[in-house]
Amino acid sequence: MSPDSVRTLARHDPNRVLFGREVQAIHCVGVGGMGVAPLAIYLAGLGFRVTGQDDALPEDVARQLARAGVDIGEMPGDCDLVAYSSAISPQHPAWRAAEARGVPRVRRGELLAEVVRDRKLVAVCGSHGKTTTTSMLITAIRASGFPAGYVLGGLFADDTPPAAAGENEWVVAEIDESDGTIERFSPEITLIVNLDWDHPDHYRRLADLERTFAELCARTRQAVLVSDACALSGRLVAGSAKVATFGRAGDFGAVLEEETSVGLRLKLHGRFSISEALVHARGEFNATNATAALAALQTMGGR
Questions:
Q1: Same domain, yes or no, for 152 and 296?
Q2: Is the residue at 3 inside a domain?
Q3: What domain range includes position 47?
Q4: I need a labelling partner for 99 at 20 to 30 A (CA). Which of 4, 13, 222, 279 fits?
Q5: Residues 74-124: pLDDT tens digits?
Q6: Contacts (Cβ under 8 Å, ≥6 apart) of 94
Q7: How many domains does the chain contain in total?
Q8: pTM, 2 dp
Q9: Pairing state between β 105-107 and 81-84
Q10: Chain-centre distance of CA 54, in angstroms?
Q11: Looking at residue 261, what DSSP letter applies?
């Protein structure tokens, strides 16, 4: 891939069509939340004109949005599309204003799926540890110099932006299954941290959750990474040639060798191309999260 084509992937074509219409200006409702704020920053990085509003905008989020060029205020007159958090009610004034003006409205997950449709997506999903694992993967990507884009579902402890457009065809994103928008994604790599019967308001039966994740794995093009300690994940992907496991005895194996005041020292084995990693985190659970992140990075070709 040439440098010019890489830059084209990372930047937004001002005539780009989203959801069947030309979109240049996007207004984000609930932009103070940890789902919508990083998406707004990612969209701004792609070259869209992005605005947003929130009934209670945290200061740290406001700083990140301002740095990315996201203006805060009412929906502008030239708005082409409204993105909203699933927490936003149809009774919200911004929703009603968009409806009155005939501006299309889409959920956060729907818009994220649309804008990464032509990228190689690493979808980090599952029940417990998504944000931590995604942040570890992003940190490893940045440290390795691999110029992928990313969309975290939270804020970093330091001043690192929670999203970036990137400079190659890859993008890492935390995918939320709680509202059903996970069904919109067709990843290059799917990383399932673990699975429990979560969000029973949306998935009334365990079988519904299982089907959703099995279908996501079936849509995944290159690889599916699952925990060797999660029986449910293993059952969903049994027999698939695309599957690799991570964990103590996984295809990507790691043993917590030492825990110090600095962090965790992991001894790596199996498919890992490196033999050791130092992780600035604590505890066995985070050792597993780090193993998953490192497995995803190597699968992407970032190491």
A1: yes
A2: no
A3: 11-113
A4: 13
A5: 999 999 999 999 889 999 999 999 999 999 999 999 999 999 999 999 999
A6: 27, 29, 53, 74, 75, 82, 84, 88
A7: 2
A8: 0.92
A9: parallel
A10: 21
A11: S
